[in-house]
Amino acid sequence: MQANGAGQGQESSDLSCLNSAQNGESSSAGGTHSNGLLSSTDNGNSVGTSNGSSTGPGSGTSAASTASGSEVGSLKKKKRLSQAEEDVIRLIGQHLHGLGLNQTVDLLMQESGCRLEHSSATKFRNHVMEGEWDKAENDLNELRALMHSPNAIVRMKFLLLQQKYLEYLEDGKVLEALQVLRGELTPLKYNTDRIHVLSGYLMCSHAEDLKAKAEWEGKGTASRCRLLDKLQTYLPPSVMLPPRRMQTLLRQAVELQRDRCLYHNTKLDSSLDSVSLLLDHVCSRKQFPCYTQQILTEHCNEVWFCKFSNDGTKLATGSKDTTVIIWQVDPESHQLKLLRTLEGHAYGVSYLAWSPDDTYLIACGPDDCSELWLWNVQTGELRTKMSQSHEDSLTSVAWNPDGKRFVTGGQRGQFYQCDLDGNLLDSWEGVRVQCLWCLGDGRAVLASDTHQRIRGYNFEDLTDRNIVQEDHPIMSFTVSKNGRLALLNVATQGVHLWDLQDRVLVRKYQGVTQGFYTIHSCFGGHNEDFIASGSEDHKVYIWHRRGELPIAELTGHTRTVNCVSWNPAIPGLLASASDDGTVRVWGPAPFLDSQEADGLNENCSNMDS
């Protein structure tokens, strides 16, 4: 990468390609390579660094080889490497050095006429690794001219002296350590809080106690390498490359490709060993939940709501047929099997909410329903049937994170906080609630109302504030796991993404048909990178969170899709509930040969173009 300009000027001749005369120069005292790094030996002999001349016994230089060498030398003089080419050579050299291929590094630097790092940086590196702290301090004076910030020298000296102090303590040299603390560290007048902590280590009774309290590896290569990594952050890259720079760049490239991949839906692994660097990262749409895996037909009327449990092991579906069905998710096949049916909801079930620990499930009905049902999912028993007044409309509910309370309300002006037995704890008068959500702090409750807004309500101090204001009715909304983003289904507008912290509209997603029906969308996939929503045109739409256009349109339902739910534990599993009386479970393409799999693409429209 292009150097940032630091450390350039007079010293640039040391860092750029050297001329043919310089190629043969020794970069430092014996024991180092021409590239400036600590040398290895070949059968006990130092690796040669001369420019093209043989050093073995009995070797002669013929006229032909001399002429050939002259031609190569002249070509080198003609070809001046660009800054980017020099950077690449240095990166390759650093990586090869890390693998122990020092002779290869010598040859690369000799032939290219480049150096891995400034000679002063090389001396500094070697002295740090050998624990020669006085020499390393002297090296800082040479490096001072190559740095922009004078304060950086003080910080680097502090780090050196701290390592020196800790190593003295480990060796039992308490007096020497005390001298470093009082005579060298304290006069720096830097980071006095840290000096107080370091002074406390004088009381450590043995080396293991010191390592534990200081969270330090101990004297040796590991701690000195870690020290060097910290010191290198203060040096310009033209002087000394940041540690493992090529691995860092490759990792960034892999992460960027994953971020740009429309269908990437697996756990992020930062290790380069998990990917091939020889090919660009591409996820197939066939790995994405675009294909119907199962159609659940047990409901005998419109299905208004569906929701996976927090642990992803169950799915609850609510219907106009007055029932709630609990489905068990097979952890291996991801097939759903009917677990139990909860009956008796006379008005139908239009909303469901799992308790944080998935023990309970609350069911609400449509606008004319004044009752709320709290079921024990494990036993199938009804724990609470709550109704404050026959005039109420309890159409939405949200659990407090403590699992001991919930809030409920409706469009007739009810807004209650209750315990598990349905006892009224608090109420808020005159709020016509459309949808509810409890934030993770356990205090704030978000409620969308009939004024086309979402407000935050605090039941402890009875304060409220405006957070989101739309121009059209908010039919439903949901919030991301981290509480930062809200996903709104807005009448006649579609799906909107809001940042709750900055209170700004982030994105409007296109394609979905949203009128005045209550349609529920959701976040999903690994890291909640995706958004899905039902639609009045009988489809399920899926977007990548960062893109306004859908990446998939799932067809199969024959009437309005009221609700979608993404399995929080299985990123490749999605459920949708529809007025056609079915629940569809979507997953990746089945394991078929390529010709058969291509035939399934009619279920999932490709939106890449």
Automatic annotation (TrEMBL):
Supply one GO CC term from the record. mitochondrion
Key words of the record: Cytoplasm, Mitochondrion, Repeat, WD repeat
Q: Where is the composition biased (Low complexity)?
A: 39-73
Query: What SUPFAM superfamilies is this protein classified in?
Result: WD40 repeat-like
Q: What is this protein called?
A: WD repeat-containing protein 26
Kindly indicate where the leader peptide sits in this chain: none
Q: Where in the sequence does UniProt note compositional bias of the Polar residues kind?
A: 1-38
Q: What is its main location?
A: cytoplasm
- InterPro entries on file: CTLH_C, LisH, TPL_SMU1_LisH-like, WD40/YVTN_repeat-like_dom_sf, WD40_PAC1, WD40_repeat_dom_sf, WD40_rpt, WD_repeat-ST_regulator
Looking at the record, which segments are called Disordered?
1-79
| Organism (species) | Cottoperca gobio
Q: Where in the cell is it found?
A: Cytoplasm; Mitochondrion
Q: What residues does the CTLH domain cover?
A: 117-176
The WD repeats lie at: 296-330, 342-373, 554-586
Q: Any one Gene Ontology biological process term?
A: proteasome-mediated ubiquitin-dependent protein catabolic process
